[in-house]
Amino acid sequence: MRASGGEYRPSSNYNSPFWTTNSGAPVWNNNSSLTVGIRGPILLEDYHLVEKLAQFDRERIPERVVHARGASAKGFFEVTHDVSHLTCADFLRAPGVQTPIIVRFSTVIHERGSPETLRDPRGFAVKFYTREGNFDLVGNNFPVFFIRDGMKFPDMVHALKPNPKSHIQENWRILDFFSHHPESLHMFSFLFDDVGVPLNYRHMDGSGVHTFTLLNREGKATYVKFHWRPTSGVKCLLEDEAVTVGGNNHSHGTQDLYDSIAAGNYPEWKLFIQTMDPEHEDRFDFDPLDVTKTWPEDIFPLQPVGRMVLNKNIDNFFNENEQLAFCPAIIVPGIYYSDDKLLQTRIFSYSDTQRHRLGPNYLMLPVNAPKCAHHNNHHDGFMNFMHRDEEVNYFPSRYDPVRHAERFPIPSSVVTGRREKSIIDKENNFKQPGERYRSWAPDRQERFVHRWVDALSDPRVTHEIRDIWISYWSQCDKSLGHKIATRLNVKPTM
Ligand code: HEM
């Protein structure tokens, strides 16, 4: 007997040379049910049979409400450039410092077993197991998002998910919902572009998307955006390629990731940041905290910070993918949120869904638990497997030496204002998607137009909705709107 109660139980530590029940009793026949005579009926007292079926009946947990389909891998993050003037984050303290990480790439809309070749954003979530707790950078492959207020997120996901009646994803529902939301145009300029179907998970960018705040030792705050760039470049699948790849293997992305790590061809990304002085946030024609905007790289250049290498495959898909839980609220000293409203909503939503999906003790699961020492009095509940041997489980106490951690800086800016329910002032929905479209070569523009014509040709898309989209794209770029209208045989209204 190796471990005492309360320790994590790797099956190999307990492996018995013979079959047993879950409670450890020997099983002398795992082939046949216990019956009256040779032909049955079966006796309910066959506890082993009942236990085996009952466990099987409960093997699945609820899949993630979004990002259900994913693949994960482990590795390390290494600082390559000094950013200690910007942040006191311990894991970024000096070049050469390495931190273990786990990454989960995902598609967004469809189910746990859906094809990995669909036009869909890709999740790009990284958990850094730092010495000062975990830091989760829960991003996507695109640097912007569809909406800027979390109030709209459930409706948005309902529109993108399959029709509740037929369980088929339908363009008319998507184009109807987003026709009310021109802030989505920039995101659609990524989704309907070639990058809308990445070649696999190794050849795509990643982005923290939101504006976060870095805080240095003196408490000085700097706005920051995080960007991952794959060293092997960004590659995509065009429509006919996606059909072939997906038709042959609906798990091609998972397989590519697993096989390349197994072959020693370790995927690598460089981490860059863009930084902005919060004092300058009013200087631009867009709101820097607006998640539908990028910060122009000529004004805010990409600054290198480090590299991430994935050099270890997971050992168990259920433990290290299904039970893996990321949350944008999980930060470390030296990194803070911004007032971006979408980020603020996410701070609530992830741990909430994980308490439902995995149970209240999901942060005790080895893949989610911090690797550094940790202590508090939040305990017990369903499936607690922390064996505590302290007598003092309240705070403060003169018997318990545990004290507060040293204070670390948080933003010192003053927050005031009336209660409001409103949209932001500088919406500026059309400029950046228009610039993006104009930056492409003609053949790339042509594919973009083709995809829009195709989507808007759905017979259930009404004239009104078609007109709205043509007007939106015309406001981004006159010739783009004109091309879509001409192909659809519609007269542009502006
Ligand atoms: C208010 C807006 C949003 C809400 C309410 C929301 C909510 C959720 C929820 C409930 C999950 C499932 C988590 C789980 O079961 O473990 C999830 C997963 C995820 N979300 Fe969001 N989300 C929002 C916006 C975003 C944005 C803007 C991004 C990208 C920056 C993003 C990236 C992800 C990723 C990558 C995952 C999968 C994490 C994993 O691999 O386990 N989400 N989101």
TrEMBL record:
List the GO molecular function terms. Answer: catalase activity; heme binding; metal ion binding
Record-linked InterPro entries: Catalase, Catalase_AS, Catalase_clade1/3, Catalase_core, Catalase_haem_BS, Catalase_immune_responsive, Catalase_sf
Domain Catalase core: start-end pairs? 20-403
- Return any one Pfam family short name: Catalase
At the top level, the lineage of the source is Eukaryota
Annotated heme binding lies at 350
Metal-binding: present as a keyword of the record? yes
Instruction: State the active site.
Output: 67, 140
Q: What function is annotated for this protein?
A: Catalyzes the degradation of hydrogen peroxide (H(2)O(2)) generated by peroxisomal oxidases to water and oxygen, thereby protecting cells from the toxic effects of hydrogen peroxide.
Family statement drawn from the similarity comment of this UniProt entry: Belongs to the catalase family.
Question: Can you say what this protein is called?
Answer: Catalase
